[in-house]
Each structure stands twice: as C-alpha cells, then as structure tokens.
UniProtKB/TrEMBL annotation:
Residues 18-77 form the HTH tetR-type domain. The keyword Transcription applies. Keywords: DNA-binding, Transcription, Transcription regulation. Residues 192-217, 233-257 are annotated as: Disordered. Residues 40-59 bind DNA. This is TetR/AcrR family transcriptional regulator helix-turn-helix transcriptional regulator. Residues 245-257 have a biased composition (Basic residues). InterPro entries: DNA-bd_HTH_TetR-type_CS, HTH-type_TetR-like_transc_reg, HTH_TetR, TetR_SbtR-like_C. Residues 195-208 have a biased composition (Polar residues).
Amino acid sequence: MTASVDAAPGTAARADARRNRALVLAAAQRAFAERGPTVSLAEVARRAGVGAGTVYRHFPTKSDLLEAVLQQRIDRLAKLAADYLGSPDPGVAFFEFCTEVVASTPGNQALCDLVQSDDGWPRALLMSAGARFHRALEALLLAAQRHGAVRDDIAVPDVLAIFTGCVAIQRLQQTTGRIDRTAAIVLDAMRPPSDVTNHPTEPNARNESTSRNETPQHRCPICDTALRHTGTGRRPRYCSSACRQKAHRQRTAARRP
C-alpha cells in the first residue's frame, strides 16, 4: 500500500511532463508554420502557456525542438498512409492521402526547406521517421497500382517530386485548407491514361486512340508486359524487338486481300 502511495506523485509528475511536452510541440508547430524557424523559444513557451524553463527542460536547443516538430509531422503522415492502406478502394485511398499531404504542407514549407539545407543541424530522428514514411507511402502506392488506379511506371521518388511541385503551386496560388485546382491536375497525372484522348465531333475527325503510334502505351499490346520508359525520347510501344516484329507481321497479314 505504501509503495503505491509513494509511486503516485512520480506518476503524476510524469503525466504532467508528457502533457507539457505535447503542449510545447503543438505550440511550436503552429508558431513555426506561421513565422518560420526564426521564432524564439520564449514565444513558443508563451503560446504553450508554460514557463521558458519547461521548454528548455524538454528541448535544450531550438534545433532539438525543430527536429521533434518535424519528426512528429512525418510520423503523423506515415500513420495516415498506414491507415489508408486498409481502405477497400486502394486507388481512392492513395489519391486522398496525396491530396491531404499537399493541402497540409505549405504552412510547414519553412521547416521542409530547413531539412533540405546543409547547415549540419541534427537529423537522426528525421532519418528514422523518413524511412517509416517512405515504407508506408510505398505500400499505399503499390496497393493502388495493383488496383489499376496508378500508372505502373510511378515510383516513390516520383510521388515525392510531385508532392514538391504541388506544394509549390499551393504556395504560388496562396491556397490554404484545400488543394488548388492546378495541383489536383498534377496529382491526376499519376493516373493511367484514358484509352481515348480526343473524342471526334465531326465525321472526318481523326481518331486519336491508343492504337496510334504517337499515343503513349504503358503495356505491350502483344504480350501485355508493363513497359518502362527511361524518361528520354519516345515512350516504347512494345517490350521487345520480338513483339515489335510480331505486331508487324500481324499488320501485314491484316492488309492482305
């Protein structure tokens, strides 16, 4: 009985410490989003409703606080991706996740810029958080691709680059709280192309369907193998010279009377 009574004050102290740390992190997230990483620890303490000493006990330097704020945000995104992974429609889940990432990131751009800088500030926590986020994003992407909702030639680095471009659009258009129309168009570029790119409105209009050579194809029409594009030159239509020759023979045979 005595032991439990003695433990109670310590337990309460730890609970208070956890609560204060959460208050500081929440206040720091808002302050850094509004004013960038130049905000002082005294200002963070004021916003959190705690003393400056409380902030310093948990985060001795501003670098420690910045890293903790970024780790918390990245871990939240990783958890969000993992939660979406259980959705019955992986395609819808993937694009909803992408939309949420893009819509919520511009306010944290100053922190994102700091992560990419080379001033030697601590990154140990961010490296592990980033690895968790990449694994969760990759699982969500692969599920969407298996569902046929995302192009087969998209990889995690492509998604991250698209995030960067969309966030830049959000900032340029000064769109907050929702995704900008232009950014949404960029996200839609990850979807598989439609079979028809031009719907004829006149009898003599040209049909621009995927049967034309210049229209990108993402699967070999002969063996249905996924095609890979190196990023330079025209996208390949066939997976190999053998399939190309087979297609040529089929076209030749079809033209014979």
